[in-house]
Specification:
By secondary structure, the chain is mostly beta strands. Helices cover about 0% and strands about 35% of the residues. The strands form four sheets. The chain has a ten-stranded parallel beta sheet, with no helix packed on it.
């Protein structure tokens, strides 16, 4: 369905690229050999590396290196760089961040103004809380760390190497290398509870 695809004159498409229906490639975009775009992707002023797949996602003003998988329904923007062999999954937004190689951000996360180092796994629903009402602050997650699902990282904050953040945590202070960071309210169980009707 070539009529469903729009490619600007400034775009560079190397050999072996696949562009699926309903995709738009705009601006000074470079699609490297063996990359696969769409269906339904929008790429603008970005570089997509060899063997990288962008499925039903938006990439603008960013660089994604080789053998990455993005989407479906991800939004990569504002000078983000994603290094080799990363997995950016469904409904993930990444803004103005540096993502090193072998990082997995698989589900429903927002990563903004951040530096994420090698071999980090970011659990579903994780948010970097980068805006304090006046300025944008930075989050750093160092290599080999694991961020549990539904965590909030309140920037500015630094998560050290080989750290585990317990699921559901709100992290407001730096976490040292090799530590477990966890912040949860105490669970209460009230027996024989009946809803008021």
């Amino acid at each position: 369905m070539p009529d469903s695809v729009h490619i600007d004159e400034e775009v560079t498409v190397e050999k072996g690229v696949k562009i699926h229906p309903f995709s738009t490639i705009r601006g000074k975009t470079i699609l490297k050999t063996g990359s696969e775009i769409g269906p339904g992707s929008d790429i603008r002023n970005s570089e997509i590396g060899p063997g990288t797949e962008i499925l039903r996602s938006t990439v603008s003003d960013s660089k994604i290196k080789e053998k990455c998988s993005v989407g479906p329904y991800s939004n990569i923007r504002n000078n983000t760089t994603i290094d080799e062999n990363c997995r950016i999954g469904n409904y993930v937004e990444i803004k103005k961040s540096s993502i090193k190689r072998n990082v997995k951000i698989a589900h429903l996360s927002y990563i903004g103004d951040s530096e994420i180092f090698e071999n980090v796994n970011i659990g579903a629903g994780t948010i970097t809380c980068n805006f304090d009402g006046k300025k944008k602050n930075k989050t750093i997650v160092k290599k080999d760390s694991f961020i549990g699902s539904n965590s909030l990282l309140i920037a500015p904050v630094c998560i050290g190497e080989n750290v585990t953040i317990g699921a559901g945590s709100v992290i407001t202070k730096d976490v040292d290398d090799g530590s477990l960071g966890i912040s949860r309210s105490q669970q209460k169980i009230i027996k024989n509870w009946k809803n008021k009707t």
